[in-house]
Design a protein that fits this description.
286 residues, 2 domains, four-stranded parallel sheet, four-stranded mixed sheet, 11 strands
């Protein structure tokens, strides 16, 4: 198996993180849009250092070389396009129980349609793998999200931080004014912290997901490894205020958009200092 750059524990214990260094990825690579997304996501994950994609067809025909790679892996990840679970079934018939199964259709991505693969769909699947969303309950217990994850017993950070920003509109330049300001603040914060965190062995990923107009209640939310900003910072409360910009985008009247109350202030856009504090909280560093 190709050697990977293994992130070290951020607590400096010197123990390598359990379950992270060697992952093997099997994608169903079916003919549908969802199937092709699995292959694109597997390639992206390999390039990002998450693991190594392997030939699912070789596993199906029982190639000895692929079985050796599986034996050398700490974690087997399958990415299936739909609930039929072709990659999972192939693995199971080969006597392999996957540690993770990511289902593309679980994220509201249709199976059929055009074979064009939107970047946001690819990022959704890639982020799901990084966040361990496809792990079995047994694996979740074995690889708890709290602490650094290396088994040293500290309360330190995990080795991956996924920061997800959700909003309506097409992109950061074509959303409501407050969402746009938040998006710029998130990117600014990520740019500032990335080098320092990666020096400490923490991989930082930024994901931007565009929501449909009927999900405006969730627009301008920031998630840190799946946890909302307001759940990380004690005393922060979510509210909503009228937003004429969102009204223009959605074509609706009297539209309200998310805001947060904290420390006696109301924030319609989230400033970099609150984002940075949430990062520390998410990593167990504050």
């Amino acid at each position: 198996m190709t050697e990977q750059n293994t992130p070290r524990c951020a607590c400096e214990s010197g123990i390598e993180p359990a379950g992270g260094p060697k992952r093997i990825i099997f994608a169903c690579a079916g003919a549908s849009k969802a199937g092709q997304l699995t292959n694109e996501a597997a390639v992206r994950l390999t390039k990002e250092g998450y693991g190594n994609t392997a030939c699912t067809a070789s596993l199906a025909v029982g190639m000895p070389s692929i079985k050796k790679k599986v034996e050398a892996a700490d974690e087997v990840v399958v990415i299936d396009g739909c609930p039929v679970g072709c990659a999972r079934q192939i693995a199971e018939k080969a006597g392999i129980t996957p540690d993770q199964e990511i289902l593309v259709t679980d994220f509201g991505i249709g199976k059929g349609g055009s074979l064009d693969l939107p970047e946001e769909d690819v990022e959704t699947v890639v982020s799901a793998a990084w966040e361990g969303k496809g792990r079995t309950e047994e694996e979740k217990e074995r690889r708890p999200s709290g602490g650094c994850g290396c088994g040293c017993g500290c309360e330190g950070s995990t080795d991956t931080l996924v920061i997800e920003w959700r909003h309506i509109g097409r992109d950061i330049e074509n959303t409501c004014e407050r969402c746009s300001e938040t998006g710029k603040a998130v990117r600014e914060t990520v740019d500032q912290i990335r080098a320092a965190l990666e020096d400490a062995g923490i991989t930082v990923k930024f994901v931007e997901n565009v929501l449909p107009h009927d999900a405006i209640a969730d627009s301008n939310i920031i998630l840190f490894n799946g946890v909302p900003l307001e759940d990380l910072i004690e005393g922060m409360e979510v509210t909503s205020t009228p937003c004429s910009s969102c009204a223009c985008i959605t074509g609706q009247d009297d539209v309200e958009c998310r805001a947060v109350d904290y420390g006696g202030e109301r924030y319609e856009s989230i400033p970099p200092e609150l984002i940075a504090r949430a990062v520390l909280k998410a990593l167990g560093l504050e």
